[in-house]
Amino acid sequence: MAIEHILTDADTPQSLALKYGVDWKTIVDYNSLEYPYFLDSKEAYEKLYASGYLTVTRELYQSDLIFYKGSQFATKIDAQGIRKIYEVVEDTTIPAGQATGYVFVRCVNFGTFGNTIAHSITQPYKLHTSVGQYISTLTITNELPFDNGTDATVKFTGQAIYIPSEGDDTDVQLISNVDTYLNMLGGEDFELAEDGDMTEDDFGDIGTKIGLENIKQAIKHRLMSERGSLPHHPEYGTRLHELIGKAQMPYINKLMELDIEEALSYEDRISSYTVNAVEVQGTSILVDLTLEINKVGENFRLQLDF
Predict the structure, then answer these.
(1) CA 294 – CA 181 distance, rounded (Å)
(2) pTM for the complete prediction?
(3) CATH tag for 169-305 (out of 3.30.930.10, 3.10.450.40, 3.40.50.970, 3.50.50.60)
């Protein structure tokens, strides 16, 4: 059976090849990785998300205009109901006496989704500036296309990578005990109630989840956590909470689906996933998912209400 290795910042395919005595290309192929293979979270954010400069022009420039980190601009809603959103990466100032400046932004969604043609990012979306949220004389455009977003399959620091042993095969027939495999893959963690408190088992000890049930719990926590709530894991969580209360236009549900799919792409214990339905009811989001466990092909359905 393959060896599970948790990646550190120092790991490369070549260093793992030396450590485990396996050709580095075999490791890459076994895990279906694409160049650059391994990235830490910061590198992934910088290299895989579409980014570029916006040209921002204002008519009134008697004072500095600061766009704070996290301000958002967007494309218009397209025929499929999709709006692409881009965040300001760091505080940017257009000085007093200067009408035009350049603001570096990065798409909030992973991969090629954020690529877009020139002059398509024209809308203020959620602005946080030194003069307030609304600037009526603002003109925005991306003079060049954004084409650097990529869907490369890579692993991040802290994720598991599998080192094949001689004669190893990923077919389910070679996993002699599926339950044992699922328990090992899912691991064991504290069981949390709906309100976040720990539970008790039948013997008065702290309740736990193991194997498949722990995978389900971990996925639920990933989807229900706010993106950015864990400073050292900026990719963890979703932005679903930002969409609660929005008017239910078709693009809102599509944005929620894309956000869920991006969050699930970081969960290396599942090999595939399908978002069956996403529905907003008042202040709740109902999510219906079908997921497949890595290497055993076992499907399970997960329905969440948050």
Answers:
(1) 10
(2) 0.50
(3) 3.10.450.40
